Amino acid sequence: MEEPEVIINNEPEQPVQEQPTIPADVISFKHVNISHRKLRVLSDISFNIRQGEFVYLIGKTGSGKSSILKTLIGELRPEGEEAMMIGYDLLNIKKKQIPELRKKIGVVFQDYQLLKDRTVIENLMFVLRATQWKDKNLMLNRCEEVLTLVGLETKDFKLPSQLSGGEQQRVCIARALLNSPDLILADEPTGNLDPITAEEIFQVFHHINQSGTTVFMATHNFSLIDKFPSRAICVEDGKLIDSLV
Question: What is the pLDDT of residues 152-161, one digit of tens each?
């Protein structure tokens, strides 16, 4: 099976540089334009997310939610006055800084993106090796810690095919937590799940947030937003509407 691409900085060692300090605003966009393949998707958007917040990103399919998330992980380069992400300047970020940025965030996808021929623990170990962990005992301990956090401590030697959809998504959340990220980005994490399982996944995210991790979740699940209310940013007609405003 083809393994997913993992970006690793293999350039010669450079003098140690001071890492960006995580500001109170984990994300700060001011008058930003986002384009995809030279087509303008969003114009003049401004918003900020503070450390420890839980924020929903809502809007119709094709409204630009995914473009915002792709911008935040350095996949799309924005234009505008300011686009800061956990201390990194997305307007001027260098390619070699993108792996550093991605190591500080956790991303949870709708379609899981697990290695189907590897066990749960092997999936997690793959990510740790790719992010330059070396000590096998420390790696195994970290895997067990994050699996316990999502309630899968007894499923570590199961293959993805032996897990339910909800359990596979919990593995993805555990994977996102491996490097103790400053921010979790979730892209429609309950889109493929039944209502009861979706509610359980929302509970997991809110539990993570209560421990201090910032969560920014794109979702269509308005019934669960009502059940787990929090700040919401709506993408509509190329603009953002913030529930705080």
Answer: 999 999 999 9
What the block records as the tokens of 12 is 């010669």
Model confidence, pTM: 0.85
